[in-house]
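To fix ideas, we quote verbatim a fold written out as tokens:
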Amino acid sequence: MDTVGLWSLVRFAHVAGAALWVGGQLALSLVILPLARHLLALEAKDSFTAAAGRRFGMLTGAVFLPVQLATGWAMAWHKGVTWSSLAEPGYGRTLGTKLALFVLVMLAAAGHGIAHAKGRPDLARALAVVSLVGSLGVVLLATALPAT
């Protein structure tokens, strides 16, 4: 495989991982969980939604995060990004903002899981919304970055 093909594959893995993460959040929030609340008995709903959340969280930790971190680091390295360049106008500042928002999204997602496990549904829901809106912001910022 030539280097152009390699970087296309790296970029594809990064974009596909982001699509899986954001698409999964949207599917859970807008389709699966509302149907579970409407169609399932209370005990079944609670069990199902907890299991769906755990599975999505495991997928995030085992697949999404490692792929996003590895491919994101590789693309930044390929582009010649340095810590100081993240403060420069244009590509660096946009990437820096995307990275900062990504960290906040991951913290909100982790907080959501903790709040849910501790039986704090209102906080869990608020953190889920923050994570989803933040994820959409990450995708929006990503569209402003040129391909590496």
Summary: The mean pLDDT is 92. DSSP finds four helices and no strands in the chain.
